[in-house]
Amino acid sequence: MAALLVMGSQVTNASRILGLWCLFLSLSFLGYFIFMDGEVNIFSCLIGWSMFLPASYGAFLYLYCRHAIIERPLQLKDLWHFSPLLICYLLNYEILFASPEDKLNMFLTHPPEPITLVISEFILFLQAFIYIGFSAVLIRKYQIKARKTLSNFNPDIFQWLWKLLILDAVIWSLKGASSIVGFNFTLSTMGDILIIVLIYSIAMAQWRNPRLFKIDQIEDKPNPKLNNQDNTVETDEIPTSPSTAKSDGALDESTRNSLLSLVRQKMQDSSLFMDNQLTLARLAEAVGVSTHHLSEVLNQQDGKNFYRFVNEYRVNFVCTRLKEDPSIKILELALLSGFSSKSTFNAVFKQLTDQTPTQFRDGLKSTR
Question: Is 139 helix (H, G, I), strand (E, B) or coil?
Fold first, then answer.
């Protein structure tokens, strides 16, 4: 699996990272078989090296999430994320470079753990939960950015990433609980099984679809950024409701009302929502305002993010056409309205109407 992900025909940086993760996972489990026969062999010198590999899993999780969403080059500085693994190796260099006979004897007789092993075990679990936190912040950042600036992405992408993160937290919690009680075989085995299922399920899906979680239109540019017209700062924050301090921001309420009317007129008259590559910047250019002002108008005056604002027009267009002719093909309508894929359309339609497109059409037929 590692070879397929690293050297396949459609290799991405995300698949490379996942491939290396699979390789490290395999080597980690392979370590247990090196000394199972209780005799020194040609592989006995490798005893100990694999036991600290899980200290890299947090880094792999974080880097995979980052590169799965946005295709960006791997840099040399990314290696610092693997410092927990390096620290574990440095703390236990005496064990790692001991003779094969001494290492085999230590792992078979289970003497009291040296303090360096205890510290390494603490680092192993600490890095796991720290990187789960880093990954959560990263996913949340891109989720907000997508909703704020894009009109067309599949929201299920982020749902799956959140599920991946939750399952990873469950795995490490099981492993941690096993360690706290002095190694519980059942808890540890459950954690191991879930690790294998998690990594190789994602690996298989990534191999089949290298752009599994990719969002093409998101640009990885630093925020906040300075707006040249009014010297205000644009951030990723989205108000939680229309009542969120309407007096805040660069524009007064009457100006926001006027701009909102102008935006709605442009959307309706020019059918801008039919552009499946429509972004906040492109709509702002069409209306003749800055992206910061447009974002402020939609969030504070209309109480919606850009993603919801545009997709409401698309869903309303589909619903109107279905009411006129329920026999029309739903997929054709979806693509005509501005959605780029069936999966995105289905997810958004259900999100906005609490019905699937088919359920909506069947309801229309039953009332006729």
Answer: helix
Q: Are 25 and 7 in contact (CB under 8 A)?
A: no
Helix axes 253-270, 306-324, angle to 10 degrees: 40
The tokens describing 290, both together, are 């800055």
Give the DSSP per-residue string, 46-85. Answer: GTTTTTTGGGGHHHHHHHHHHHHHS-----GGGGGGGHHH
Inter-residue contact 274 to 336 (CB < 8 Å)? yes
**β-pair partners for 234:** 225
Task: Write down the pTM of the prediction.
Answer: 0.81
Task: Provide the CB-side half-sphere exposure for 295 (13 A, CA).
Answer: 24
- As separate numbers, helices (DSSP H) first and strands (DSSP E) second, the chain gives 16, 2
Q: Report pLDDT for 221.
A: 60
> How far does Cα 61 stand from its chain's mean position?
10
Structure tokens that stand for 220 in this block: 């990885």
Q: What is the C-alpha separation between 263 and 249, in angstroms, rounded?
A: 18
On the question of pLDDT at 212 being above 90, the answer is: no
Q: Is the pLDDT assigned to residue 111 strictly greater than 80?
A: no
Q: Which helix (H) or strand (E) holds 304?
A: none
Beta bridge partners of 226: 233
Q: Given the structure tokens 């191999």, which residue do they identify?
A: 207
Q: Give dist(CA 318, CA 357) in Å, integer.
A: 9
Question: If 0-12 CB within 10 Å is exposed, 13-18 middle and 19+ buried, where does residue 190 land?
Answer: middle
Q: What is the token pair recorded at 109?
A: 């007789």
Helices 115-149 and 306-324, packing angle to 10 deg: 50
